[in-house]
Model the fold of this input.
Amino acid sequence: MPWILLLGLACGMIDASKVSYHQMSDHQQLSQQGSQRNHSHLHTTEFQSLLSDVVTIMDSQAEESGLYFELNRELSSFFNVIALGGAGTCLTRTGGACAGSPGPSALSEAQTKCSGKKVILWAGVNDVKVANGGGAGYTGYLQGFINGIRQACPGTEIVVIQPPLRGGPPPPGYEPEWPAASEAAMNAALDQGCSWAHGEADVLAVCNTNRFFALSDFRPPAGRAAHFGSSASGRAAFKDAIIAAAKEKLL
Done:
């Protein structure tokens, strides 16, 4: 059954050599430097041949919370992890069609790596920002991602994580991206997309992820609109839910 998840790393006891990183980036640097992406590849070990391969795709929510590294590292106890994504990533749109995107779409990245692998997707918050339509057509973009994986890599197992979202003012110097006034509509779009994915036989979807968080997790100093930081109250429970879903469906 297809799955899609998105994950990060912790300072733990897991062997980071089993994780291959493609495109890790800082949100502020990407906003300023445009299309510059950072690619690094970690040395692999013979142990990898005993594990299934998993492609994880995450955006700035994972980066700003510190979960990009923690989740990928913890997943590397069970899978060979190929970590993709970065700040500004949209599900299927790139360039001018995805405002603020410095690089390829989640789909175009995943399609180059998904053959014979499982997929974990934690992305989509950029698809509902104001400049990208505020959530209009979101379900279609998620469907496009999943169908694109199915076509490129038949039989791929997919886990989808619904991005948690609380609206608020932007950082100084930024245009409003996820304003509080649009929060309900944006979350309705995310809910609808996740509900559709949940009904697909080949997809495991973790929905209603706002339940893990308090509004203060998306406000300074803990975080910012549509993003939560490492001090967020629901961060640990959210991470545990992602890992549990991956183990349940992909092992």
Q: What stands out?
A: The two ends are 11 Å apart (CA to CA). The chain has seven helices and eight strands. The CA atoms of residues 170 and 176 lie 5 Å apart. The beta strands are 19-21, 52-58, 79-85, 118-122, 158-161, 203-206, 223-224, 227-228.
